[in-house]
Amino acid sequence: MSQTPVTWKETRARLREDRARLRTYIERDGAPRPFLIALYPSYACVLMHRISHYFWRRGWHRLGRLIWHLNMVVTGADIGPVSNLGPGLLVPFPAAVSIYGTAGRHLTCMPLSGLGGELGRDEDVGAGPGLPHLGDGVTLGHHAGVLGPVRIGNRVRLGPGCIVASDLEDDASVEPAPIRQLKGRVA
Asked: Global pTM?
């Protein structure tokens, strides 16, 4: 994972694209244009992550961790300061979302989704030891997750409740198994 310092200009550019994507998400169902987008928990968690990541990459780890902790307390989102996430990050409902790894443009994380390391797997696929690397346009559905040092391609969609622990190619779609009803009496 590249540890070159991220510039403030790059951070602001990422935030601009994050805001634009959130506005599009809010307005897609005919909702009025948001008055003050900074008040939305969806944007607040992304804003605090971007600032935390900026300080972390500049070498100010204590300040980065402080803002990361503040993000967890205020919004419920656990987005590690080491996570390098491309522009257009969308977290519509930030409570209980956990993100550790890297991702390209337009990552979408629905409620209770996440990505992170897996104990005992320390390989590095470009996101850091044991962490996943996601491509552009990845969507994590409700309760979906990516575990361990895996590569997820571009435009991949993980359906609700799906857990992935191996590499996925571009344009893959992972759906949950259908529910089976067992016959007989339940003891």
From this structure: 0.90
